[in-house]
Amino acid sequence: MRLFFTAGGLGVWTLLVYAIYWVSDGAIGLGVANTGSIVETGRQVAGNEAGRYLENMNVDEFTQKGLSLLQGIIGPLFAIVWMIGAALLVSIPWLVSRFAGFFNAQRSK
Which parts of the chain span the membrane according to its record (predicted)? Predict the structure, then answer.
């Protein structure tokens, strides 16, 4: 019975982490692809003088590189989070039986 719940928990945890990764990777990819148009719209709204400052600072290139870096980091980050969660899910039955034995031993004294 424990194995069934542990395997089910791992399956749900895996699907949850993968779904969140899929959504976040897509959103970051969309941001990377549209950085130029977003910055250009900001330049138009800001006006000529502020637009020149944004152009001199290469905001679009800086933003695109930052989002690309985030997109590269997010995969290993989700793998680490998944491993920690999986280790906790696998150890829960052992921890519960351990604490139950400890509390039963305390009551019998």
Answer: 73-96
SS3 57: coil
Q: Which secondary structure element, helix H or strand E, spans residue 13, and what is its range? A: helix 2-33
Burial (CB < 10 A; 0-12, 13-18, 19+), residue 23, is: exposed
Structure tokens at 69: 């870096």
Identity of the residue numbered 41: T
Give the whole-angstrom CA distance, residue 86 versus residue 50. Answer: 49
pTM > 0.85: yes or no: no
